[in-house]
Specification:
This protein is of the alpha+beta class and about 300 residues long. The protein folds into three domains: about 150 residues, no CATH class; about 60 residues, no CATH class; about 55 residues, no CATH class. Strand 3 and strand 4 form a beta hairpin. Helix 5 packs across helix 7 and helix 12 runs antiparallel to helix 13.
């Protein structure tokens, strides 16, 4: 493939691409790639759900949105965009694969239209709540950058012309005081050498000390940098696929709990023996295997699925 034909996707940022971030550009892009169209009739059909959900969320987070310059009607418009994305990508009314998945899970060949509408309505409400909670984080970060400005940071190394100076002045004009900027690659190499030598200080190839300075702007906290990371999002900030999978696992576990609860003593023991036989070499299930063996040796096999 010709390298010149590959277009590298731009990483969106809060300064230049805020609209694309809060409107969930990845949904819009997927709709475009699939060749689908947003159905404008849905705006009228689901106006009640959209307005109610948007008003409740806006009331909780009003100060944040006001700082960014948004009022309630703006928030309703954003929620409408989320609703249209859901209908184009995840609705069981418009996506045969999504409907088939529901039918298989329920073990039926078809559903009444009223049941389809009920399921889709509930899924839509959950989807909107997830997206609006995530939107609140985006607006929170934007509000802080508006009220507090940017972080001030830099990595510098001394030179033969350096003079003693405080960090604030060094950040303002490092060249004036005889310091030079250090690249990320050079800084990483200096850290590796420092770790190997057991020295806490960092030095460049010429033996001059390197220092990294980070002055967060007022109003920005560590929380703002970690809440949007995948491992810190929690259920409200998962994408729809992950949320659906989690829900399916929860339903499957509940069904299994009921099934085991209705078993007689011998059936429970058979279940335990099969589990031990299939997983006897699985080191990650050592604790579970010990418990299963202990339960088998007990007079009363009481299995509690947690």
């Amino acid at each position: 493939m010709d390298k010149t034909s590959v277009t590298k996707k731009k990483r969106l940022n809060f300064k230049d691409d805020f609209e694309m971030l809060y409107l969930r550009h990845e949904y819009i892009e997927r709709v475009r790639e699939l060749g689908k169209e947003f159905d404008s009739t849905m705006v009228k059909r689901y106006a009640g759900i959209v307005h109610t959900t948007a008003r409740v969320m806006f009331a909780k987070l009003k100060p944040i949105f006001y700082k960014v310059g948004f009022d309630e009607e703006d928030f309703v418009s954003i929620t409408n965009m989320y609703m249209l994305s859901y209908m184009a990508l995840y609705s069981i009314q418009t996506n045969p694969k999504e409907l088939q998945h529901v039918l298989e899970k329920k073990g039926v060949g078809s559903l009444e239209e009223s049941e389809i509408l009920r399921i889709d309505r509930n899924n839509l409400i959950n989807f909107l709540r997830q997206r609006l909670y995530h939107c609140s984080l985006l607006f929170s970060r934007k509000a802080r950058s508006i009220t507090a400005g940017e972080d001030r940071r830099g990595i510098f190394a001394a030179t033969k012309d350096s003079v003693g100076v405080c960090q604030e002045l060094l950040l303002e004009d490092h060249q004036k005081y005889g310091y030079r900027k250090v690249t990320s690659k050079e800084f990483k190499k200096a850290k590796e050498i420092s770790k190997a030598s057991g020295d806490s200080d960092l030095f460049d190839k010429d033996g001059f000390r390197i220092q990294k300075i980070v002055h967060p702007n007022p109003g920005i906290s560590e929380y703002d940098y970690v809440t949007l990371l995948e491992q810190n999002k929690g259920s409200y900030y998962q994408n729809p696929e992950a949320t659906k999978q989690a829900k399916e696992e929860e339903v499957a576990l509940e069904a299994f709990q009921i099934k085991v609860g209705n078993m007689d003593e011998e059936a429970k023991k058979k279940l335990l023996r099969n589990f031990i036989r299939k997983n006897k070499d699985n080191k990650s299930l050592r604790k579970e295997l010990r418990l299963a063996k202990k339960m088998l040796s007990s007079k009363n096999t009481k299995i509690v699925v947690v």
